Amino acid sequence: MKILFLVYHGFSEVSGISKKIHYQVKGLRENGYGVHLCYYDFDANGHRCRYVDDKVIKDYGTGALAGLRQRIDFDCIYDYCKENGIQFVYARCFQNASPFLIRFFKKLKKSGIKAVTEIPTYPYDQEFETFSRQERLGLKIDQMFRNRLYRQQSAVVTFSDAETIFGQRTIRISNGVDFDSIPLHHFQPVDDALHFIGVAEVHLWHGYDRLIAGLGEYYKKVENPRNIIFHIVGDIDPFDLYGQGDYPGIQTLIDQYGIQKHVVFHGQLFGEELNKVFNQSCFAIGSLARHRSGITYIKTLKNREYATRGIPFIYSEIDSDFENKSYIVKAKPDESPIDVQQIVDFIESRHFDPAEIRKTVENLTWKIQMKRVVDEA
Fold first, then answer.
1. Is the predicted pLDDT of residue 13 greater than 90, yes or no?
2. At 131, is the secondary structure helix, strand, or coil?
3. Cβ neighbours around 66 below 10 Å, total
4. Which neighbouring-strand residues pair with 42?
5. Which helix (H) or strand (E) segment is 34 a member of?
6. How far is CA 124 from the centre of its chain?
7. 334-357 tens-digit pLDDT
């Protein structure tokens, strides 16, 4: 089968989303499918271009008109599919439903080419509350057309438990992992402190402020506390750092509780630098506030990456792949500070074997997950 993996943006070497897409493509290819990757980006001369497998299939030019054309002209993708015998299109949602995209998928459907769209996070409307005015306007347009868009497709791919999304049936899979790209955790303590690690492009729904508040309360109330260091790896928006509205922000809470020496901001780390911080850490922090986005059920990529490394972790949503695992701490899905003493007791009362933790997610490879999509489409 020949598959077109359709993305409406470009790639970055430091982006977790970009890496995930390439692992998904790899997973499809491991099943024997012929997969071609279509994306949109700028060339060396600043031209807006549509690419397939790094070859330009449409040069839209430069300037505002070129920007508009790339949003409404999908004929080049349709022509590529027809000319190259594409049988299946796997698209990744960009909250960009429009009459032009509807027309494109309608043409695919009439030509007998199956199509699905992956919605990485559902529901996603509440995530836009802190976004720019232009981004919120884009969401309004998406809301107007998304039901009609998905009627032109075979299914919606979701990592939630929703049986229908925007009037279309779903294919429910888990976020996958690529074992070749994630090393096994080798715990190497550097001192007598308990080191926690959280890796994310930090947003409100990660809820790291809840852990900071938990650390603050822990040092206020516990007579003989352990020395705990929380390592935050990834970029942080000023909104999440200093707060707005009902949320005080991570740095604001650090200053309020006077726990500056217990939190380390690393920014983005990769390769051996990232592994070094992981290997001195004994516990990882997943999402602690998905409820702020109206999400109860989700199968996040980060949970699977932590498990693949073999490090125990905490999260607050409902993730059916991990709910009863012995290496998990579940946090309440509310605004209360995280119970840090619970984590300390958990760590000190158990022995964790990274290889054994890793074995529990062997069924979550991208090869297996992407095969399910094709089989159920």
1. no
2. coil
3. 16
4. 48
5. strand 34-42
6. 12
7. 999 999 999 999 999 999 999 999
Measured in whole angstroms, the distance separating CA 62 from the mean position of its chain's CA atoms is: 31
Phi, psi at 365, each rounded to 5°: -70, 155
Q: What is the pLDDT of residue 156?
A: 98
Instruction: Give CA–CA dist 90/92, Å, rounded.
Output: 7
Q: What is the structure's pLDDT at 237?
A: 84
Contact present, 71 and 51 (Cβ < 8 Å)? no
Cα→Cα distances 119→93, 296, 371, Å: 5, 16, 17
Cα distances (Å, whole numbers) of residue 2 to 36, 88, 114, 131, 292: 8, 7, 11, 37, 40
Query: Considering the entire predicted model, what is its pTM?
Result: 0.90
38, 50 in Cβ contact below 8 A?
yes
Instruction: Kindly give the pairing relationship between strand 283-285 and strand 313-315.
Output: parallel
Please count the residues of the chain: 377
CB 281 within 8 A of CB 196: yes
Pair of tokens at residue 291? 């409820």
CA torsion angle for 300, 305, 306, 309 (degrees, to 10)?
160
Of 98-102, 124-128, 225-229, where does mean pLDDT reach its minimum? 124-128
Extract the tokens encoding 25: 């493509």
| Cα–Cα dist 352/356, whole Å | 8
**Long-range CB pairs of 68-75, under 8 A, 24+ apart, other chains included:** 70/40, 71/96, 71/98, 71/100, 72/98, 72/100, 73/100, 74/100, 74/101, 74/103, 74/104, 75/104
User: Taking Cα atoms as reference points, which of 263, 198, 271 lies closest to residue 235?
Assistant: 198
Say if residues 156 and 166 touch (Cβ distance below 8 Å). yes
